Queue: 2 jobs
Job 1
Amino acid sequence: MKEAPYSNIEKNFLKKALGEKKRLDGRQFDERRNLKINFGKEYGCCHVALGDTRVLAQISSEIQQPKSTRPNEGHIYVNVEFSPMSAEHVEPGKPSEDCVVVNRVLEKCLRESKCVDLESLCIIADEKVWTLRVDITVLNMEGNIIECSSIAALAALAHYRRPDVTSTGERIIVHDYSEKEPIQTSLHHYPICLTYAIFNKGKQIVADPTLIEEQTAEASLSVGMNAYRELCGLHLGGLALSDHTSILKVVQKAGIAAADIVQTIKKSLAEDEEARSKNEVVGLSVCIRAGRITTLCDQRMKVKVNSQSIQAAAEKLVAQNRVNKHTKWDDEGNETESGPSNKIIVNLGDCSAELQDASDQEMEESSDGEEADEDDDEDDDMEAEENKAEEQEDNVEEPKKDTNDDEDDDSEEEPVVLEQPKISPKKEFNKKKDKKNKSAKKTAHQASMEAGSDDELQVVQELTKEEKDRMKKVETLVLDDSEEEGTTTLTAGEMEVPSKKQISTPRSKQQRKRKKNQNQNQNQNRKNGQKPGGARQWYAQNAW
Amino acid sequence: MQDIKIRLASERVNHSLTFGEKGAPQLFTPGQTITDNQRVMSGHGTYLDEDNKDVLKASVAGTVERVNQLICVRPIKCRYMGEIGDVVVGRITEVQQKRWKVETNSRLDSVLLISSVNLPGGELRRRSAEDEQMMRKYLQEGDLVSAEVQSVFSDGSLSLHTRSLKYGKLSQGVLVKVPPSLILRRKNHFHNLLCGASVILGNNGLIWIYPTSPEDESGVGGFTQNLEEVIDTEDRERIARLRNCILALAASKLMLFDSSIQYAFEESLSYSIKELLTPETMVDVALHTRHRLQSYKDD
Amino acid sequence: MELLSDQGLRLDGRRPEELRNIRCKLGVFSQADGSAYLEQGNTKVLATVYGPHQPRGQSRNKAPHDQVFVNCQYSMAVFSTGERKRRPRGDRKSQEMSIHLRQALVAAIRTELYPRSQLDIFVEVLQADGGNYCACVNAATLALVDAGVGMREYAVACSASLANGEVALVDVSHLEESSGGSNLTVATLPVSGQVALMEMSQRFHSDHLPKVLERAIEGCKDIHQILDGAVRKHVEETGRASGWGQVDRAGIAL
């Protein structure tokens, strides 16, 4: 496919806006887009996103013979490829002109500036040296590939650890990572290649251009700078500029920007180092998890799954959410730290569950006892949780109950009806036992009807460890929705369910009253100190 | 036994004929300011400076030609730029739907519309669909034609026509390519030289040398191509000599027109045809030709 | 290896602001529309220009409607470097050079004069002794002038380096390049002072950039003088022989 050019209208608009000192995405002339650096599980794997431009770098090493002219220096090769997924016009095979340009600029910046200490890569002079290969794949093109690639290459190089080597005279032994601690690459300095787009014969110079800015620009300037304000490479190409003093100004600014970026890289490296030392390697999945629903699944497979398994799985995931301080991504892709979230499963639908923040609840009476306490694997916490559930029971919000009503429809469709327990596990267990004789679904249904809501969910509070292991196999995709309503929804791609849940109809006073009585009964039972052991046994027998 | 001549590159013969003549007119090179008079108009080879609209600069290297307010700079060598009325010799490159594309050593291929040719049989009729199918029968890719420039399109390409009997497909002869600037613009480009051969001096630098046919002028033209006719040796030799002469004149940058070619032919008779290919002989012939032209001019 | 001795002489005996010896000739090929041969010190380069002509083959789609399509090819003869070059063209460095060549020349050529046409520029390095790119740009400019292609002005390129961290050297040779000095190559349009291309490799502090850049631009201006002189000489010779295209009524050249 040919590259679709930008229309004249767009280009003229851009130029006009620049004449008024405005950029299309609202940035300042020397403002850069957000830089996100993520490292992979392996050493030397790095993913960098500069705005929407995404680049993946991977380092690999090999032992080779050195060049005869430089017998005690290793080699470093840089290779940049445009993946066909990065843009419509990229075709696999022969690299295009742009690709060649990017390759050369990066080669100059990394190789000829001698940022890597090549002598440290030597094993036996004149015989064996390490060769490092930096392979960069451009995953998405949205302008400024050179900068993104150079950051990725540097971060990957700094991240990479090569295997340790001992030489026994004639032979050399390459040690595995587990045998001996791998060695870091020693970098003399960190050169970054910054790109600027030049308009109007040098009168407007713009940092970190987007794709449309690049296409409209008259000339582009790539400057390789390191933190010490040394120039490691410079390339200016395009239509002639009127004045070379503007270039000198740009070079000054580039020095400062480069220092910032090097700081960011070092920070990310330090964070990754920390994570590794705590054995908490997350890998690249973090950068792929989106902050919004990215796909809409219209066709769903109706799978009859044991109700408990889903509940348990949902619980477990919610528990994980609470414990792990995982980062959330809002709409712009900015990271927002989320503290341990106190999420409670409100409703479990078909492959989905509605959660609610414990903190967001108002003091309202509810007899549903719908909150399912996140259940960790510890049985010790059970008591505590029971108590907690008790407390929280009072905090259930009105709309929650209402939404349960809406689940009527859901429950009818679904082959699985998930019941919510009354708070006391023992009580619930007892209840279940009674109904067990009749078909579980039907009675559960009835039970919930009695309680005044069809879809009350019975959340398993106790599970044996084996149960939990088994539950782990059930996978659900966890996505975070906006938190405007204070509810978050776990859904495996379904959109209908959340919307349904949000329609609320008021519950009748009668129902509420009934619920309240129920809960009070449960509490009494619990206080009598009934042991929950029986429930565990029951589930052990009945699960799957 | 053949003579093989080897020479060093540094001993290459310089073809240019230097004469201590009257001073050269003023030369301009690209980027040089011609004038900053506001009233002048910029012609070919000049442009107005972007920053200062008053200043007129040259964009090629050559001499200035001034016609009242219009200033042009003519380069010594450039690709053929057609004008209406020029005679051109070209080669068919493409057969398209209602026209042929002719390569004429210019910036873009010229166009020969089917409505601009004389159909065989000479009748004047509307071109039908059949004619379109038969286009290839008239002119194929690779054929040489002589034509006249009818008009110039807006993008600079030429529209040719062969509506006279003297134009049309060329049959047996020799094609010589020289820089277009060496061809003098005259009234007549078809010459029957006294030496016994005929020549078409195309304005685009392509020269066609062919044997003079004994009949009258209508021999060349139309779409008939007589490839069976055997040209006798004398004619061939004359044509070969003419070709070498033309190349000699072109190498020394002399203007080509019927008189100069004729004189060159006569001067070259003292050499054999083969010898005319050596650089020294070429310079010699050119020199003598120039002398003769000068002497006739002075007379 | 010291790039600058105590007496202020470089490795080949030049002063820091001295250019290498430049010799050039236009119109060396009769076949091409324009051709030139240029020597800059020991670097020898041949350039030819074909066009503007009708784009043929695949280039037919590439010719934009309002500009000429410039096709540059940079090639190094296999015998041009110390060790025989295995790949004369098509490798990454040559491709990059071709792209840079095009960038510099497109800035000088009046591309709006030849829409839908193609201009082929071929450059062959016969002997590489540093400053290859600069010699190529200069030779290509001469070839374009010889072909009569309309240009805004000459596109001239020059390289400069930094010695001992303070003194700027102009027109670096291969020996100076490989001794570890940084190398800044600049292609400018000297009359208007516009910069068409800037290329730098190796490493030096950005504070030194202004003076190296100044030195390179000065070098470009000096080279421009030399090239202009050569063009004038050639035009005079050629024009005189053809009588400047002027003929009298009898059709005899004046």
Job 2
Amino acid sequence: MMPLVYFQILSAILFGIGAYGVLARRSAVLILMSIELMLNAANINLIAVAAHREGLGHFANFDGHIIAIFIITIAAAEVGLAMAIILRMFRNRGTVDVSQINVMKW
Amino acid sequence: MSGLTANIYLLTPEFILAGLALLVLAVDLFLPDGKKSILPIICISGLVSVGLVSMIMLPGVNISLYGGILAVDAFSLFFKIVFLLIGIFIILSSAQYIKQHLSHQGEFYGLLLFSVLGMNIMVQSRELLTAYIALELLSFSLYVMVAYSLSNAKSNEAGLKYIIVGAFSSAVLLYGLSMLYSATGVTKFVDIGMILSGTSELSPALWVGVALIFVGLGFKLSIVPFHMWAPDTYEGAPLPVTAYLAIASKTAAFALVLRFVCEGLIVAESLWQEWQMIFAVLAAVSMLVGNLVALAQTNMKRLMAYSSIGHIGYILAGVTVLSTDSLVAANSVSFYLVGYAVTNMVVFAAIIAFFNSTGDDDISSLRGLADSQPLLAASIAIGLFSLAGLPIFAGFTVKFYLFAAVASSGFLWLAGGAIIASLISLYYYLQIIRQMYIEGSDNSAHVSSDDGHGVISPSGTISLPRTSFSTTLVLGVGLIVVIWLGVYPGPLLEIIECASEALMGTR
């Protein structure tokens, strides 16, 4: 069995890339994709831990898997909503560049 | 662990609420356009009946459902009633706005009811995933409601900013949850509390997990430095949604934070003492930044956004001083949340009524309101005095109670900072009152020539339509409660005492 720490490092890196993407990207769609990366980082972490603990015989519950399934479902709903709002934005303003979405400041 | 259906009848209010939301959506499909005005009536009667059912079924019950995932106790009952009342008040005060300014009314009411459902589950949840799902049910409804004026660029922008920051914050919260889970293998608040109190030295994973969960919640609560979305979202959203954001979502999120902190964190006393400092600093920064930036605002919604950030700071100061040995802090936080909700409701109901007749939400447009609409002006003035914490209004008693709790737990500097922040807030609240009462008196000729307002006709007579019955009702009830809480808060405090006992006793 691969050590748990590999998975945790992978998930930390994914989370970091996602967070960087949210801060650095200009396009709202790409920001959403970065947020997906962050959510999946959490999923990898959860499933790796749950599987690892089962393998060690610590406790055979499925909390980690269940949480991951819920996260996937909620993330799908979230993306649907966000895309609808971005689409609306594009119809009204003709852009999805977040640096130009600045009617309101301070 | 008992079976899935054991005690499921205790969730009847939630089932009715979900059914009601679906019913409203279904009824809306078959209603011709002219008859949509029965939708708010259905919603209100439904919410009232949910409240009655909860009042009949749940008092005295103190049970954890599904192996300790949902708590049906006095604390959740108290906040459920608060949320239902907020829902009713929002619908009453904004039915006319929704009819005038928004299309697709049925979906709006449906979403509102779903968000009330989310809040009800949120205050009952004793486990992180359940809390997260309830939080998302609330947030998703709010995302849509914020972006509800489809062709309004400001509303779109507000919705986009809100959903991006909201999704980001839930990703952070979930990563925190996964760290916590990987370090401990548990997600229930009580188990987290047991593990934390068993360790003297925190492992880094646990530290990062709890910290990220609070960063996520901090975004939702718009605590400084995670507040940047709030002013834009408040300004762009339709007014009833702004009111709803400011009142309901904050109250619900704090109810969740109260339960999480009381069951999970304060039991580990040595660790909690370290964290108290972090909370105290965040609280101080929130109240100062919120109130200072509010000084420079010219838009009413934006001003209320910064003012709410300031109030979040006060409430967070109350959360800071929660402890295992006394109920005072928990009482004062719940009490503050109620006072804050009622007072804001009055202010927003008046602003919504004003917006209905003028279509303007700048502070300068309030000029002379005392002459043209004395009831609205008086409501806004009393509400703002209460928010600032002047005596005989609710704001004074709740602030007094909260600051006393903060000071008596050794955080004197925090209480001092809160009092200074309140003084600052008095300045910008008084600016608005000055616009309404002083500016207008000798300015009516100037206003009418200024034609952007059109509030007062050239002859000086009042051309505004009268406020609707429902608005008058909301304002009347709200003002009575504001003054009642300010003069005689005893009965409410007794109820809150029971709620806090249930909260602390379930450890």
